């Protein structure tokens, strides 16, 4: 049991990172970013090129990958998304689906159709700790992901830019009146979502096979994790991600692994029936302002 | 004495209606100017034109001699023009402290740009901390010091108005535009706002005070401008205004009745 809980929580960190980016973008722009999972895929492939082909140190690989995916998202936002969500969040949401396919096809051109396997960085052999077998790679994923979450939380609460972002999320018109550059803070939310995806992609790469279509399922699960926690709520996204990871491993371990997705989603449906706005969600978050 | 804030020939039309029509107002440093007039006489529009929320069709607005007409709202704020709103305009989801912190946005730009966090992290941190201190002392001065951690939506209507005032005061405005600051306040909160305005005058700041509460305006203001149909029908000391025949005719009588109505609500 302890074994299952630990591996579930460790893997849930991937969903937590996707969900945070998803929730942040939604809160700032009312756009559901369905390319969220593909940002992870892109981060993983960029990581592969830098780590395996160019042999960069791992920490530089993580930073570069997150910066690259983040900057790509800023460019995409400026060129394609901002002109759309200025008029309608729904239009921009559809644009992100287009972006997802564009990223997948772009990655195919670059890295080909075959899956790539990323070598292990921190070790793939389970190590017993207090009677629980843990994989060093998963622990690294969890720890580095946690550092990312702490930095983002500090940024949102203890920097002027973070406070400004929360002000824009609350009331963009007022925010403009007090002198905040609203467009820039919205672009920044896409940068952060991209950077989180870049980090998560590199961390995920050593424990999975890299394929250009791996992002689709991850993106949907990140969305579900954000919903469980309460769409737009950042701590909620973390809780939702960890909970989803836990649910998946529990179902996989005690019920039938091949039914994992079906059963997990059925549980999520019931959960959302009981709490339509998620665990920490607030009524009204879905009304665009 | 040269004026701090000077608007000349200010005009704004909405379709066929002239909301403000050739208005001249000049505020001396340390002056509290009342702006009164019946509903629809152009008080709020005047405030919007000066703060930059609306663009005038004609006329010039100067702050310390600098023409403001083409400047965006936040640039005017950075030059020392503050404003409060008739209905409390605060960020309901943010904490009380963060609301005031956001009000500092136009004062010092360090830490409000992405690059600052990477290239000037220590300066950003220092500015953040100094603005935090400044926000706390501003909140103390409006009497919300013990509510800093609460969400703005948990405050009463009057407290939200005080918070809006703190948001404007934190940038140390040279001229503060106050749109009906007393409306909806209890007597304790009203006294507090009046004390803050007097304090601002002592520091050499000017206040343009649009208000329905005529007795308070008569007590507080150095001079009063009376509007009707977007034009100035009188200007002078409270004593002069109270005796002005046109004002008595067009405005004060009716206002007294409105006040009775307001009390009944």
Descriptive account of the structure:
The complex is a heterodimer of chains A (289) and B (265). Chain A has one domain (10-214). In chain A, α2 packs across α8 (182-204), α9 (215-229) crosses α10 and α10 packs across α11. Chain A has 289 residues and is mainly alpha-helical. The mean pLDDT of chain A is 90. In chain A, the strands form two sheets. A two-stranded antiparallel sheet of chain A has the order 1-4. In chain A, strands 2-3 form a two-stranded antiparallel sheet. The radius of gyration of chain A is 18 Å and the shape is globular. Chain A is built from eleven helices and four strands. Chain B has 265 residues and is α/β, with parallel strands linked by helices. Chain B has two domains: 5-80 and 173-264, Rossmann fold (3-Layer(aba) Sandwich), CATH 3.40.50; 91-156, no CATH class. Chain B is 42% helix and 23% strand. Chain B has ten helices and ten strands. The longest helix of chain B has 21 residues, at 121-141. Chain B is globular and about 60 Å long. The N and C termini of chain B lie far apart (43 Å). The model of chain B has no long low-confidence stretch (mean pLDDT 87). Chain A binds chain B through residues 155, 158-161, 163-164, 166-167, 169-171, 174-181, 184, 188, 191, and chain B through 53, 73-74, 77-78, 89-94, 98, 101-106, 111-114, 117, 124, 127-128, 131, 167.
Question: What's the topology here?
Answer:
The complex is a heterodimer of chains A (289) and B (265).
Chain A: H1 2-29, H2 36-53, H3 58-85, H4 89-111, E1 116-117, E2 127-129, E3 132-134, H5 136-158, H6 160-170, H7 172-177, H8 182-204, E4 209-210, H9 215-229, H10 234-254, H11 260-274
Chain B: E1 5-14, E2 17-27, E3 32-36, H1 43-51, E4 58-63, E5 66-67, H2 73-78, E6 81-84, H3 96-103, H4 114-119, H5 121-141, H6 157-169, E7 175-179, H7 187-202, E8 206-210, H8 214-220, E9 223-228, E10 231-236, H9 238-243, H10 245-264
Helix pairs in contact in B: 3-6, 5-6
């Amino acid at each position: 049991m302890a074994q299952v809980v630990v591996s579930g929580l460790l893997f849930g960190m991937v969903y937590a990172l996707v969900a945070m980016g998803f929730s942040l973008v939604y809160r700032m722009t009312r756009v559901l970013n369905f390319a969220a999972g593909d940002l992870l895929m892109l981060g993983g492939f960029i990581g592969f090129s830098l780590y395996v082909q160019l042999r960069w140190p791992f920490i530089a690989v993580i930073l570069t990958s997150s910066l690259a995916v983040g900057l790509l998202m800023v460019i995409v936002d400026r060129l394609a998304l901002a002109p759309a969500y200025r008029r309608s969040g729904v239009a921009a949401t559809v644009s992100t689906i287009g972006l997802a396919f564009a990223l997948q096809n772009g990655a195919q051109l670059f890295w080909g159709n075959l899956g790539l396997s990323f070598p292990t960085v921190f070790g793939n052999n389970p190590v017993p700790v207090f009677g629980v077998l843990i994989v060093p790679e998963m622990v690294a994923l969890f720890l580095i992901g946690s550092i990312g979450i702490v930095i983002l939380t500090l940024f949102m609460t203890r920097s002027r830019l973070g406070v400004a972002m929360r002000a824009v999320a609350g009331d963009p018109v007022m925010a403009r009146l007090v002198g905040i550059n609203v467009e820039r803070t919205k672009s920044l939310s896409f940068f952060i979502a991209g950077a989180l995806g870049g980090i998560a992609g590199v961390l995920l790469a050593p424990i999975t096979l890299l394929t250009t279509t791996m992002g689709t399922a991850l993106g949907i699960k990140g969305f579900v994790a954000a919903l469980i926690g309460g769409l737009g709520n950042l701590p909620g996204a973390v809780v939702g991600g960890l909970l989803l990871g836990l649910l998946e491993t529990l179902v996989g371990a005690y019920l039938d692994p091949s039914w994992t997705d079906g059963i997990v989603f059925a549980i999520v449906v019931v959960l959302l029936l009981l709490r339509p706005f998620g665990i920490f969600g607030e009524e009204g978050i879905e009304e665009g302002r | 004495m040269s004026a701090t804030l000077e608007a000349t020939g200010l005009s704004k039309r909405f379709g066929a209606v002239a909301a403000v029509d050739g208005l001249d107002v000049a505020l001396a440093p340390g002056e509290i100017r009342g702006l009164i007039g019946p509903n629809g006489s152009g008080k709020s529009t005047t405030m919007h034109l000066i703060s930059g929320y609306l663009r005038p069709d004609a006329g010039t607005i100067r702050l310390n001699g600098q023409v403001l007409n083409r400047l965006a709202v936040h640039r005017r704020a950075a030059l020392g023009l503050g404003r409060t709103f008739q209905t409390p305009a605060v960020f309901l989801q943010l904490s009380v402290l963060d609301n005031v912190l956001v009000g500092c946005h136009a004062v010092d730009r360090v830490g409000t740009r992405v690059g600052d966090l990477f290239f000037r992290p220590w300066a950003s941190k220092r500015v953040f901390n100094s603005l935090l201190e400044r926000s706390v002392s501003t909140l103390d001065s409006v009497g919300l010091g013990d509510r800093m951690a609460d969400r703005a939506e948990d405050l009463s209507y009057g407290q939200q108005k005080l918070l809006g005032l703190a948001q404007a005061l934190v940038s140390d405005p040279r001229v503060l535009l106050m749109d009906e600051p007393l409306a909806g306040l209890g007597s304790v909160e009203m006294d507090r706002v009046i004390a803050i305005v007097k304090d601002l005058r002592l520091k050499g700041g000017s206040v343009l005070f649009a208000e329905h509460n005529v007795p308070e305006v008569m007590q507080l203001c150095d001079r009063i401008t009376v509007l009707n149909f977007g034009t100035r029908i009188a200007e002078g000391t409270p004593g002069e205004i109270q005796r002005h025949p046109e004002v008595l005719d067009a405005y004060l009588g009716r206002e007294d009745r409105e006040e009775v109505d307001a009390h009944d609500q």
